[in-house]
């Protein structure tokens, strides 16, 4: 653990759980006494708990901020998550202690939609499979029957979740002349539907009609295992599933079973139920393309995420309402009290 030493003992103390860009650490250090976990691995819970003992703010990435961790941090005022999804944080426990929780919504939309679309193209046109075919020396000559894939043109893309990333994925699909269906809790405005040429359908229609089903909902108690055996049974056997949202939205065992019996044509997965473990059966399937949770992994996006997380953190520590507050229940305006 590295500590940017404090010049002023009154400065708030902050923990950053990953080696983020030094320029952002330096910026935060102008206002705070900063500790950085310099190892690019999740902090072990015991180390995290002991490091949280006297901090006012934490910037977690890829680490669970559980009730136990929150209880171990009596001075904590803000959890500034360096991600848009905040299923790693016990928000209820934060609410009870008026701890503000923020995310980095918006700045990783395009990079994540790129990755979702890359997986879609990869499974449809068998890109990773072709790469293995060539590298393994199987390619001896041009073959008429070699690795036939699925065209995007005219196919139906079903978006489960039609927020920032779902819509950005729709924008890409329009360029490929795909038909776009979506399902979310709320229907988008007529102007948004027109912009993306997207049609709102119920969940069952989405599952039945999609050639590619791409998941863009957050992980919540309602969406955990939202796609399981029942859903796979409704899908076309020629359909592909793309998950660049959160692993536990899909029942991975049911996915494996659907792929084993050809109830599904393939899967493009950036996220997994028990990361970094991947179901061993998926590892052996040629029609499954895997990536190691890298939806937002570009230098531009990772910098924007670190900057926005620091903006949220510093605003909260100044007693201001942070721009990306996700638990307004915990906010008390100092002007009105
Ligand atoms: P967003 O703008 O909040 O969009 C979420 C969408 O999901 C909205 O359309 C929302 O609909 C819908 N939704 C929420 N709960 C639902 C439910 N129970 N049933 C049906 N629809 C539901 O979020 P975003 O910025 O697009 O991000 C989506 C998720 O992507 C994040 O939460 C995160 O987990 C994941 N993500 C992954 C990576 C990666 O590295 N792979 C990177 C970034 C984000 P309503 O508006 O109707 O509620």
The largest sheet, given as strand count, sense and whether it forms a barrel, is: 7 strands, parallel
Bound molecules: NADP nicotinamide-adenine-dinucleotide phosphate
Whole-number mean pLDDT: 96
Structural class: alpha/beta
The global form is: globular
Strand content: 5-15%
Low-pLDDT stretches:
none
Order of helices and strands: EEHEHEHEHEHHEHEHEHEHEHEHEH
Q: In what order do the strands lie side by side in the largest sheet?
A: 9-8-7-10-11-12-13
Strand runs, count: 13
Task: Furnish the topology, listing elements before pairings.
Blueprint: E1 2-4, E2 13-16, H1 22-29, E3 33-36, H2 45-51, E4 57-59, H3 67-71, E5 78-80, H4 91-96, E6 100-102, H5 109-124, H6 127-135, E7 156-160, H7 164-175, E8 179-183, H8 190-196, E9 198-200, H9 203-209, E10 212-215, H10 229-234, E11 240-243, H11 252-260, E12 266-269, H12 280-283, E13 288-290, H13 299-317
Parallel strand pairs: 2-3, 2-4, 4-5, 5-6, 7-8, 7-10, 8-9, 10-11, 11-12, 12-13
Antiparallel strand pairs: 1-3
This protein binds NADP nicotinamide-adenine-dinucleotide phosphate.
The site of NADP nicotinamide-adenine-dinucleotide phosphate has 30 residues, from helix 5 and helix 7.
Description:
The chain is 34% helix and 14% strand. It has 13 helices and 13 strands. Strands 9-8-7-10-11-12-13 form a seven-stranded parallel beta sheet, with helices on both faces. Strands 1-3-2-4-5-6 form a six-stranded mixed beta sheet. Helix 5 (109-124) crosses helix 7. The chain starts with a strand and ends in a 20-residue tail after the last helix. NADP nicotinamide-adenine-dinucleotide phosphate binds at residues 84-85, 105, 108-109, 112, 161-166, 184-186, 216-220, 222-223, 244-246, 270-271, 293, 295-296.
């Amino acid at each position: 653990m590295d500590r940017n030493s404090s010049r002023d003992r009154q400065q708030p103390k902050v923990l950053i759980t990953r080696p983020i860009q030094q320029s952002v650490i330096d910026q935060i250090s102008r206002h705070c006494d900063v500790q950085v976990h310099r190892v690019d691995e999740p902090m072990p819970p015991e180390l995290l708990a002991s490091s949280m003992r006297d901090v006012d703010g934490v910037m977690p990435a890829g680490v669970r901020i559980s009730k136990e961790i929150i209880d171990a941090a009596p001075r904590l005022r803000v959890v500034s998550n360096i991600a848009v999804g905040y299923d790693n944080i016990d928000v209820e426990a934060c609410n009870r202690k008026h701890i503000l929780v923020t995310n980095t919504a918006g700045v990783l939309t395009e990079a994540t939609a790129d990755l979702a679309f890359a997986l879609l193209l990869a499974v449809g046109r068998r890109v990773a499979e072709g790469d293995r075919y060539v590298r393994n020396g199987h390619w001896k000559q041009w073959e008429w029957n070699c690795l036939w894939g699925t065209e995007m043109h005219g196919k139906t893309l079903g978006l489960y979740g039609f927020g920032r990333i779902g819509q950005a994925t729709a924008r890409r699909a329009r360029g490929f002349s795909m038909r776009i269906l979506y399902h979310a809790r709320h229907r988008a405005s007529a102007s948004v539907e027109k912009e993306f040429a997207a049609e709102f359908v119920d969940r069952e229609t989405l599952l039945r009609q999609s050639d590619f089903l791409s998941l863009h909902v957050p992980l919540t108690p309602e969406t955990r295992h939202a796609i399981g055996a029942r859903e796979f049974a409704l899908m076309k056997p020629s359909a592909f599933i793309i998950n660049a949202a959160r692993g536990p939205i899909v029942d991975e065992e049911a996915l494996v079973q659907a792929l084993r019996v050809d109830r599904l044509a393939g899967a493009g997965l950036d996220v997994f139920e028990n990361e970094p473990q991947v179901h061993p059966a998926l590892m052996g399937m040629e029609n499954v393309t895997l990536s190691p949770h890298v939806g937002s992994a570009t230098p531009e996006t990772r910098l924007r995420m670190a900057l926005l997380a620091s903006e949220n953190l510093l605003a909260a520590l100044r007693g201001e309402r942070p721009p990306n507050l996700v638990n307004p229940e915990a906010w008390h305006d100092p002007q009105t009290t």
